[in-house]
Structure formats: structure tokens, C-alpha cells
From TrEMBL:
Lineage: Bacteria, Bacillati, Actinomycetota, Actinomycetes, Micrococcales
GO biological process, one term: malate metabolic process
Keyword field: NAD, Oxidoreductase, Tricarboxylic acid cycle
Record's protein name: Malate dehydrogenase
Active-site residues annotated for this sequence: 187
Job of this protein: Catalyzes the reversible oxidation of malate to oxaloacetate.
EC assignment: 1.1.1.37
Organism encoding this protein: Xylanimonas allomyrinae
Length: 328
């Protein structure tokens, strides 16, 4: 058996945690030959619930799960972490302004970034899921100066998967027949799901993109509003699909994206496609198992450019707001 990988999950007593932790224990995160040690981080008021989840994990008797530890101390939680999944965040409360939300999350992701910097393993990779995911990832990365920025990413994989399913349904093919979807920008209502470079059942997706009424009037809003539609139907936000997207993101990051395809992730911009340096922006990306690379050289149609720019503008505004609060 190979050396166990230490996986730290924050917000472990939350809804996403309840799906994610059992799939991780079952070996779905890093593959069936990689044993894992789980470290669960929660706020003090939710530690008891996380302990209950740890008891259930024990009761599964997973062959690949070596150990589960619950703590409310980020230094303990991230000690030796190889994979850090930052799921716990402060939700927007009633009457909360954006600056309040960014400030409240800065108080979570700043200290967590510092704890990762000081305590995590040298090879740590960090996925930020808790919203606002891109800005929270920016805050965590900025507070971990010794960890290379490319080891941080923000999750847009759920948006990516949603866009794949919507496109497949529209084209009348199975979702396995859709390749090369791209989510650009922020994980927010301004995100841009791009079908121009897709291949759908062997057909270039750009043919479907000619129907701009469908694209602008149906496809893009359906993908961007899917989270709200789930809340309306279930009475609570996406849980299992979010956990599934985390699994997909991490697997592709560690095991590599399939040949001839790519995925989407929020990564630290180094200026690709005119995105300002140092923004945590979603791009089409591939992984060779060692890290993400932005897919280069795509021709961006004016229809896409306008929407990508709008989402980038929102990310720039968020960065200015977190800078003004002294969080980055
Ligand atoms: P829950 O409210 O069920 O759980 C969040 C958990 O985080 C709670 O148990 C809370 O005690 C814990 N927590 C809060 N502050 C913490 C801290 N400082 N350290 C450790 N734990 C802390 O939310 P859930 O449905 O699990 O969603 C978690 C986050 O994912 C939310 O911010 C949500 O908005 C975000 N999402 C992001 C998605 C993405 O695609 N990037 C999609 C799904 C999801 O909406």
C-alpha cells in the first residue's frame, strides 16, 4: 500500500461535507489504490456534529481510510495536509452588504491561508469551494506566501458539469458525448459557459452557438441560475452535485485530464486571454497530474469576449474590495 495522503476538509459538518467525506473515505477522490487520512476542521459550535460524522465514517469500515481527526484549530487541521478542501464559509446573512460578506470570509480564509503556509505538506494543493469562491481563494493564496500560487484553485467544476448536461440535452446526445466545455470568469451569475469550442456528438459546438437566441436566452441563464433552481426545488442548496464536482476537480488535478479534452477551474491568472495578473479566474484548463495549465490559443468570439470581460470586471471589483479591507 502507498503512503496515505492527508486530506483536510473544512466545513466538515456541513451539507457538502456530508456527501464529500463518505466518497473520499470510499477512495473516490484519489483512486482506489491511495489510502487517505482525513482531518476535519469545524468551528467550535459544530465540532460535535463533525464528531458524529467521524463516527459514521468509522462505521463504514472503509479499507482505504486510515484515520479521521476532528478539530477546530486550523494549525492542527492543516498539519501535513497534502490536499486541502476549503468548503466551510460564511454565508450571506440578511441585509449583509458585499463588503461585509468579503470581510467575514476574509476572517476565515486569511487565517486558513496562513495555517496552510505554516503547517501543510510541501506539496499541498488547495481547492476553495466556499463562496465567494474566487475571492476566498485569492485571500487564502495571498496569505500563504510560501506556497506557489498555482497550487490554489477555486471551484467552477459544478458550473462546468451543469453546462455539459444542459448542452447535451439541447443537442439530443448523452453527456459523455460533450467535450471541451469552458467556464470563464467568476463563480457567480456573471460566469460565462462557452460552447464555441465544444465538440458535441462529434459536431463542432460552434454550430449550436449560431442560435444566439437559445445561447443568450436559455443556455447561459439556465447554467448561471441552476443553483437557485435547485434551492427552489429542494429547499436547500446543491449538496451531492457539489461534492461530486469536488471529486471531479481533484481527480483531474491529480490524475490528469483525459487526452483531447479539458475542464474548467479558477486559477491564478498570469495574463492569459487578457485577464489581469493575479486574479483567481476560471479558464479552460488541462492537468498532466502535476498541475493545471490554461488551454492556450483559443479564438474568442466577440459574443464571448463581451461576457468574459463582464465577469473579469466583477472579479477586479471583488479584488479591489478585499484589498480595501486589507485582506490581500
Ligand atoms: P453548510 O452551511 O451546510 O456548511 C458549511 C459549514 O462550514 C458549516 O458546518 C459551518 O459550521 C462550517 N464553517 C463555517 N466557518 C468555518 C470555519 N472558519 N472553519 C471551518 N468550518 C467552518 O454549507 P454547504 O452547503 O456545505 O456549502 C459550503 C460552501 O460551498 C458554501 O459557501 C456554498 O456557498 C459553497 N458552494 C460552492 C460551490 C462552488 O461551485 N464553488 C457550489 C456549492 C456550494 O454552493
Amino acid at each position: 500500500m502507498t503512503t496515505p495522503v492527508t486530506v483536510t476538509v473544512t466545513g466538515a459538518a456541513g451539507m457538502i461535507g456530508y456527501s464529500l467525506l463518505f466518497r473520499t473515505g470510499a477512495g473516490q477522490l484519489l483512486g482506489a489504490s491511495t489510502p487517505v487520512r482525513l482531518r476535519l476542521l469545524e468551528i467550535p459550535q459544530a465540532v460535535r456534529v463533525a464528531e458524529g460524522v467521524a463516527m459514521e465514517l468509522d462505521d463504514c469500515a472503509f479499507p482505504l481510510l486510515m484515520d479521521v481527526e476532528v478539530t477546530d484549530d486550523p494549525r492542527v487541521a492543516f498539519d501535513g495536509a497534502n490536499v486541502a478542501l476549503l468548503v466551510g464559509a460564511r454565508p450571506r446573512g440578511k441585509g449583509m452588504e458585499r463588503a461585509d460578506l468579503l470581510g467575514a470570509n476574509g476572517a476565515i480564509f486569511g487565517p486558513q491561508g496562513r495555517a496552510i503556509n505554516d503547517a501543510a505538506a510541501d506539496d499541498v494543493r488547495v481547492l476553495v469551494v466556499g463562496n465567494p469562491a474566487n475571492s476566498n481563494a485569492l485571500i487564502a493564496a495571498s496569505n500563504a506566501p510560501d506556497v506557489p500560487k498555482e497550487r490554489f484553485s477555486a471551484m467552477t467544476r459544478l458550473d462546468h458539469n451543469r453546462a455539459m448536461s444542459q448542452l447535451a440535452r439541447h443537442a439530443g446526445v448523452h453527456v459523455s458525448q460533450v467535450r471541451r466545455m469552458s467556464i470563464w470568469g467568476n463563480h457567480s451569475a456573471t460566469q460565462y459557459p462557452d460552447v464555441f469550442h465544444t465538440v458535441v456528438g462529434g459536431r463542432p459546438g460552434v454550430e449550436l452557438a449560431e442560435d444566439t437566441a437559445w445561447l443568450a436566452g436559455e443556455f447561459i441563464p439556465t447554467v448561471a441560475q441552476r443553483g437557485a433552481a435547485i434551492i427552489e426545488a429542494r429547499g436547500s442548496s446543491s449538496q451531492a452535485s457539489a461534492a461530486d464536482a469536488i471529486i471531479d476537480h481533484v481527480r483531474d488535478w491529480y490524475l490528469g485530464t483525459p487526452e483531447g479534452d479539458w475542464t474548467s477551474a479558477g486559477v491564478w491568472s498570469t495574463g492569459h486571454y487578457g485577464v489581469p495578473d493575479g486574479l483567481m479566474c476560471s479558464f479552460p484548463v488541462t492537468s498532466d497530474g502535476k498541475g493545471w495549465s490554461v488551454v492556450d490559443g483559443l479564438e474568442i468570439a466577440p459574443f464571448s469576449r463581451e461576457r468574459i470581460d463582464a465577469s473579469i470586471a466583477e472579479l477586479v471589483e471583488e479584488r479591489e474590495a478585499v484589498r480595501a479591507l486589507g485582506l490581500v
